[in-house]
Amino acid sequence: MHIVADNLTITNPAVADAIDRSDPEPIRDLVRRCERAGAGMIDINPGPLSKNPKEKMTFLVETVLRTTQLPLLLDTSNPKALEAGLTACGGNAVINGFSLEPDKLEFILPLARTFDTRIIGYLLYPNSNVPIEGAERLNVALELFTRFQEAGLDRDRLIIDPVIPPLIWQNGHIQAMDVIKVIRTLPDLLGYPVQTIAGISNLTSGPGDKTRKPVFEQSYTAMLAEAGLTMALVNVFHTGTVAAIRACTTLMSDEIFSWAETASTRDGKR
Q: Nearest CA to 197 among 160, 167, 227, 234?
């Protein structure tokens, strides 16, 4: 699994303040720390950016590009901000993302064709609700794939996010198991090795025992890896979860096993 840092987000007060003041240093410091912690990609999530969306997104993307060579995901529902961000990086980013919501189909999805880039598709109903059962998620996946192809995009440009539910939701743990089944089923359903991404931090969001949350996050990470998840969107400062991802990657590799290699992986050198 590719490790995608979800730390550069507007919900972080330091990030929000840096965006408001157009101060690059807090952003650059955070990106450096994410890279040292093992991030293989950086998700830039400034929220909807209702004020000065083009300027703020351009500032963010250019700041990150001056700090790291890691690939980027651009995570905003504002199409103007998204277009500005894609322009700033020459289209060399993943769009995060679209769904069957009408505005996303009309304004976000076409940007993937314009910039010839990959795009994440969320398994959500047109009203933004999350499907409750695995069969419903698969039906949404078929409709999403159809709308994606109707937009004239190559199937290899699509990355599907089945949407991990918080455990505190009603039947959240059952829905979490359905997500595992969906990831396993998608390649057969769509007829090719579809790429997938999932926000692992969603699983333990909300109130709960902070000492027990890491155990559930790390255990679920191993299950996602076995199911074939392509990209893990994760708080890279959750060191145990990052270590679990790296261990799963090593165990599933075709390369000859070496304890020395696991040490370098643990230290973020690989």
A: 160
